Amino acid sequence: MRDLALSYVARFASTGARLEAYLLRKLRERGVAEGADGRSAAIDVPALVARLVELGYVDDAAYARMRARDLGARGYGARRVEQALWAAGVDEGIRAETAPGEAARRHAAVLMAQKRRLGPFGGGREEAADPLARRKAHEKAVAAMLRAGHDYEHVRFILAATDEERIAEWLDEAAEQEGIQGTW
Questions:
Q1: What predicted TM-score, i.e. pTM, was given to this entire model?
Q2: Which H or E run includes 40?
Q3: Rg of the Cα trace of the chain?
Q4: Residues 73, 142, 97, CA angle at the centre, nearest 5°?
Q5: Which residue stretches of the chain are H helix?
Q6: Quick one: average pLDDT of 131-159?
Q7: Burial environment of residue 82 by CB neighbours within 10 A (0 to 12, 13 to 18, 19 or more)
């Protein structure tokens, strides 16, 4: 079981909870371990996981930082990051520590709008449409960004912005408040 655990953590970034769930699933699939004399061996999976955490092979905080950074870089919002970390079994304290700040949340929302060509990044397709189609497209854009985990205030600002310069100022304002130097 130890070799299986080491093999798993060598291939995948994981949390202690995910590793434990994986090992328990493998134990259920393979059945009870029996020795040569026919006695069954009790395997203490939580102790094995605790030992790997102690040795540094599994680090929930490092996993949470990596996952939050990756999801933010893909344009997902803070709520979606929180859900992903919760699903991975990351402790609430670590989730709170790795929650993206205001500047990172704004940046992720802008990335999503750019990827989906929403708001000022849309290329002017909405102006030609009739009011009903424009409203429907707006509602669809709001829903998509909310599903991606963004704050409604951020979504509303981005979709109402008339040009990319105003959004750049909005991003710079948040970065300045947090003391972040440089551009994204």
A1: 0.79
A2: strand 40-41
A3: 23
A4: 40
A5: 2-11, 16-30, 45-55, 60-73, 78-87, 92-97, 102-116, 131-147, 152-160, 164-178
A6: 93
A7: buried
